[in-house]
């Protein structure tokens, strides 16, 4: 005779764990979303994302943003984008990289100082509490003492982030009846959130390790370093050493005067003056991995200028040239036609 299938019984401790999962997944995510919306107004979000697309493309190249999340950021109808469609992991990525926030002194991944009640610290706390609660996943249970401590700390954090209106919702959740099916749903959601962020961390660990190995070798060349960084960070770029040409059909001075422009180095004549320019790419940071610097110089006078930190090489060169034009005009060496 076959034995009966085992059943999972819901106890006070398992319900405690499920309730914490729901607090973090449901209300915690909404608090992060409200924080993001307060920085980037929903009505203007599509414009912000358009302006920040190079930064987000780099994050996508790093696999910090996956293809599903990318589709949420840039839907077919761009003006329809909404933070309501962003999952918790994506909201965390955007808050760290798109909102002008500075990591707490302890970093984004550690528990902040108790005295640090800044917005940035509370964002870091949400992730820390997620990891702490997930640490009980194997048994999926939390005793009353730990539950009360966790609930108090998470509640305080979410109320600071979302405002006093969160108090009632959190208090109602604490007393709301949860059946086993609902418990299982939020356990799975918290687990998926943790897996998503672990995947991101794994990708960044690989990148960091490769950089350390590569730069530790005495014989490493700038060519090899560029190729390695380019593999992870820079989509749709030509290989290092190739001559990159672009044709500009707009009002660009370079496009008008030279048509196809060598964006590494070169020179051209403008109103009788010979102007030289050069540019280079460099690794900047994991948040903004690859940027371009450019300089432009008027050969006869020796007047020169530099521009730094552009996502696109062409923009760096063009802005350096435009800046030089302004300097020449102020010196009376270049006149408007």
TrEMBL record:
Domain DZIP3-like HEPN: 42-185
Pfam families linked to this entry: HEPN_DZIP3 (PF18738)
The name this protein goes by in its record: DZIP3-like HEPN domain-containing protein
Native source species: Pocillopora meandrina
InterPro entries in UniProt: HEPN_DZIP3
Upper lineage: Eukaryota, Metazoa, Cnidaria, Anthozoa, Hexacorallia
